[in-house]
């Protein structure tokens, strides 16, 4: 069975807790999920793999690192249920730089783009690294427990 294939039960539904979770996420719209963990803990990998499972059209073009890059897919007319991964968001929407235009724009955007029904996966080492307004809008927090062995 390849990485892209999923194990299905007799009814054609995904088996197991991961499969059921992915199936459920496909019906949630306007989700902002925060992937938190130490450097090397697999935050980015987890966010990207989940994005691939939830959104069949997800591609590397929707992995962004700045607010400017985030605006491109948001304004491109993506279908409802599409996923954007904002990787290393502590750099792009830094809490210490909350007054900068990019952080303010991201805060306003996350409040007002719910009608687009896009899922946003944000990765960051610590929740406090991103500006407060965006942090308060997060629906789900996923925390990596351990780093990969060296």
TrEMBL record:
InterPro entries: P-loop_NTPase. This is Uncharacterized protein.
